[in-house]
Design a protein that fits this description.
The complex is a heterodimer of chains A (about 450) and B (about 280). Chain A is of the alpha/beta class and about 450 residues long. Chain A is about 35% helix and about 15% strand. In chain A, strand 7, helix 14 and strand 8 form a beta-alpha-beta unit. Chain B has about 280 residues and is of the alpha/beta class. Chain B is built from nine helices and 17 strands. The chains are: A alpha/beta (about 450), B alpha/beta (about 280). Chains A and B meet through strand 5 and helix 13 of A and helix 1, strand 8, strand 15, helix 8 and helix 9 of B.
Amino acid sequence: MSQKVNMPERDPQIRRKDFEQVNTGYSKKEMLAEAKRCLQCKNPMCTKGCPVEINIPGFIKCLVEDDPSQAIKVLKQKTNLPAVCGRVCPQENQCEKSCILAKKGEAIYIGNLERYAADAAEKMEDSIEIEKNDIKVAVVGSGPAGLTCGGDLLKLGYDVTVYESLHDTGGVLRYGIPEFRLPKKVLDIELEKLKKLGMKIVLNTLIGRTKTVQDLFDDGFKAIFVAVGAGLPVFPKIPGENLIHIYCSNEFLVRINLMKASEFPRYDTPVYRGRNIVIVGGGNTAMDSARTAVRLGAKSVKLVYRRSEEEIPARLEERRHAKEEGVEFVTLTNPVKFIGGDNKAVKAVECVKMELGEPDESGRRRPKEIIGSNYTMDTDMVVLALGLHPNPILPSLTKELHIDSHGYIVIDESLMTSVPGIFAGGDIVGGDTVISAMGMGKKAAKAIDNYLRK
Amino acid sequence: MYKIARKKEIGNKVHNLEIYAPEIAKNAKAGQFVIFRIDDKGERVPLTVAGTNPQEGLVRIIFQETGKSTTQLASLCEGDSIKDFAGPLGHPTVIKNYGTVVAVAGGVGAAELLPVIKELKKAGNKVITIVGARCKDLLILEEDLKQESDNLLFATNDGTCGIKGFVTDILKEVMSREKVNIVYAIGPVPMMKAVSELTKGKHIETVVSLNPIMLDGTGMCGACRVTVDGKTKFACVDGPEFDAHCVHWDELSSRLNLFKDLEKISLDNFTASRECKCHKK
């Protein structure tokens, strides 16, 4: 059996100084070598491990035949944005984990192959005949769930309008995931294709405020897909959390990714450039924040996480990349207090050491404070990446929608909400990854089609 | 793109713009705000709505040239367009018949106060309006405010209009002579804080409209967080109006100064680049 083909990566010492993509992509030779390792299982476990059940051996077979266009056709049966999924999916916990070769530590790099197919077929149009039916459907939110649902509805002939509250499209793919992981060019190419198919995108429109859901029905929309995503950031509720230069990851990443604050003053939006930055959290957003902080020129970036490294939810690759770029991991440690100095700016974090106890409801061992182990860590900037609550605006302003105790919109198995004709998916119903949001977008498109055909 | 339909300088470096945005014009209520972004390199700037004209689809904003974005916006002309204009954002002011309302504004806060007192008056309140500014030249909208108030009083630092002193001097006097049911204040933080301290002692309900730094304005980034009654609140979705007596004022002041140095660089660069163009002409 031939060796796994690793994705080529740029030198950490070089890439830590810019926002260019870290993984440079397979060459054709590398792609062929990797694709040929696939055993083409009759009963492929990888497909079962994929949240949207992509025919993985199917697309890999096309690649073995060096036919990326055909591979894309197979991928697009299940995902509209393979160039995105190939880059940001947690494959090692999904398809690659289920690969029959994973037991030997030789799982096929499915994500790398998906990305190759998407990039090679970048120029390929969705050349399908669309029979238009002039039925209007509104999609609220232009993130992965919204774009996927909108794209599928277009192909089914619907007249689709996507409403976005910000001044640019893409949701978390635009404002959240940094350029070095997902170049915005990749997103723009996909968006252009959707626009060519007839997708109308209306920016600066916060549904609930600029227009209500009822206004949309009054405007002639027959169904609405609500994919407004995550909203209010979680704060730790500890003393000093509102000192200056304590940011939540969303603010930090929005400044850099959406507003291009790293290019201030050429761009108007400023960002503070700390020298000793502390990131709190262990998810992909924490890794993105830490690696962005490195790129802004910080002298030291420490990532503080309350469990051990084994429990860190971020992808293995992100963790490795972060370490290579100089991020220091401080695990089994939790902040208990932020200490302010001059001008109420943060100057230190008081932390407590943690130990792991019995497993909690998530199955991970519950962290416990070690009494008396408090110590302080100097810092001049903190980024909190502790997760997000669902976005409250549309649900709270649409009285008829049922919301659960966490603020998520309640849906049935066809993703329909308590209001006939309104469907919901993505983070607003409790989704957690880009791929699960896309999966729900696809499912919702089918459900909306069924609903409108009745 | 959003077109500037009308533009007028109504005070020293204070500008009144009417922007064509029919959906916002139709739905905006007193107390809500909009976010504008001038061009592709621009920042997102929140501004309280100063009025609407739903028939013509116009939204009125009034602002003072203070930083780069407001200076750049002031340099645009009637017929020019800005890239982004989103809203209305935040909760509208709670309008009901309270009885006697004292509405206090400092500086351009007067513009933001106007739609609020208009609605309060309509709801049957007796509206006593107090406006403060450094000098007479900085007072705006006198006629409009007069029309919507039962009583309009001025305070200037130099005594060029109304009393020489602060809005709180007048407020103290009004509170001593009549029963005030609620106080509404909008303006610079030190002014709102002073009003709040004054009414707190007298247990008079006081509502303030806060203006922290914002980024998206839709409840996503947490930049605008303020501590109210010991809890972290987000001005963009929980506010912008809060119970003045529960606001952590010093924290708000420090957070407003977060980017002061960088904002100055931005403004200086913009001013320098404009001078450059003038020389070329």
